[in-house]
Amino acid sequence: MTDSLTAESLPARLMRIARGGYREERTGTPATRFLRHVVLIGFGLIMLYPLVWMVSASIKPSNEVFSDTGILPANLELGNYAAGWDALSQPFHVYLFNSLLLAVLNIIGNLFSCSLAAYAFSRLRFRGKGVLFAAMLGTMLLPAQVVLIPQYVIFAKLGWLNTYLPLTVPAFFATNAFFIFLLIQFMRALPMELQDAARIDGAGPFRTYWSVIMPLTIPAMATVAIFTFIGSWGDFFGPLLYLTDQKLFTVPLALREFISSTGASAWGPMFAMSVVSLLPVIAFFFIGQRYLINGIATTGMK
Amino acid sequence: MTAPATVLGAVAAEAATHKRARRGTRVRNGSSTADGAVAYLFLLPWMIGMLFTVIPFGSSLYLAFTDYNLLQPAKFIGLDNFVRLFQDPKIATAAGVTLSYTFIAVPISMAAALAVALLLNRGVRGLPIYRSIFYLPSLIGASVAVVILWRSIFGYDGIVNKALAVFGIEGPGWVTDPDWALVTLITLSIWGFGGAMVIFLAGLRQVPRMYYEAASVDGATGWRQFRSITLPLISPVIFFNLVLGLIGALQVFTQGYVFSGGTGGPADSTLFYSLYLYQQGFQRFDMGYASAMAWVMFVVIALFTALNFVASKRWVFYDD
Predict the structure, then answer these.
(1) Quick one: closest CA in B to A25, which residue?
(2) What CA–CA distance (Å, rounded) separates A171 from B20?
(3) Contact A256 B282 (CB under 8 A)
(4) Under an 8 A CB cutoff, do A137 and B14 touch?
(5) Interface touch B119/A39, C-beta < 8 Å
(6) Which residue segments constitute the domains of chain A, with CATH numbers given?
(7) Angle in degrees, CA B316, B317, B320, rounded to 5
(8) ipTM of the assembly?
């Protein structure tokens, strides 16, 4: 236990936390440790149960979804997936493609515009920086509802209703200040010497941004990309507001159609498509969870 | 509503836990203009985007004093929208639904998040697995698929009532009974406690271990250590999660919409304020009234946040 008496230096601790490598030091007697696992596993099972139930419901015949309470179906109905795929006015891959297109455009837009702004705020010196930085933080304090109606009116006047423009163009203008903020936090931590060295070598700000800072910012960019994906993929309100043509519908709007159009009978196909809709998010979560967890931990802590 | 709810928490954290660093930045930058025009080139996309926030912000305030339906020009009607707002019984209902949801769901989620984070912080083997399991629901809790799922497992013949029946309890109509529908959505919100948990966990990791050792030497045990070391040292994180949670909950929309099929039913029991605003603005195209609603909401959220910051001076401890 001697090592725990020497305090780890703050930068070293932050580095270790940022890497996600926790030095484990188990506390308690074997009995309490065992009890702890029992509690955690029990609680974990309760947390996961709804999702497991959904997967199970997606492979049960619709009329047995509620009567057959077992997790393993008494009668397997894999046809739910095919039935759900074609249950709505468009085949489900149309909705998946639409959602993917919006997510990709939003990721590109956010990475481009937010990194430019974050670079200026964190690494460049210019007049009016304090005021602009405060303004950026201020926009984060605005609830979306307070700008919603005029924005809708502007989009309507531009003839952008029922297109993807209102759902993608804003991302290219760094309208999500949270991501700028996240990148600023990350870029601030990079040593200033890097920039001075690049300057001495004759690199201008653009060169420094692209060749020096960007490569080092990849972990934070990954965080932004994954958060953008999850946010865009799950967004219900934006598409609900702006899209009316079924051909343009995204996955969340399509799922809503299941409750309103097919009635209560198509439980199996509906849960099958619900599973399909969550799979990309869960996949992204497992691939990128280190970035996600570090991302929210650093915005909260530093 | 499209931006992550974490946005505001981030501001709170910036303002609260970063005072010193920001002071430093300000001094260092002073009136220096070394990179001048080039910096503004980098900021150009963002500045154009800012116009797209600032102009609507102003025009929604103007619209709040008008009668406007998108087709005819806005007609100035003075304070009529606000007078109507304070007489509209549905506004009171919507505010009641939103505030009950917020003040029940946020404290319970936070308590759960802190409890699990404390448990995980005791050096548990398999921490990354547990953390993933508890964190995942928070990412999908507001998705249409999960809200539909919630409706189903809490349905009258759903699995929750079947489980209660095992204990001889006849469960209510969680989805159809106005007394229970909001409770069902509160459980969904609590299910998503993992986002706050991850932040608590990161905070707990930064409490120097030697404080506990010193306390042990002085004879302080579990609860006493928690009260006197853990709580004060993670109070900035509690504050961060509180601000973040309150602001997110006050703006909830998708859960209410999907749960009730857009009506806010049964009997307006899930008519969240944002949902009622949407109905007024985009189903009835009563956009002047909806703008007035948005401004009242903005002022209430700003007051809550300001109150939080003022109160935080009494209980949040910064270990500078």
Answers:
(1) B123
(2) 32
(3) no
(4) yes
(5) yes
(6) 92-261 (1.10.3720.10)
(7) 140
(8) 0.86
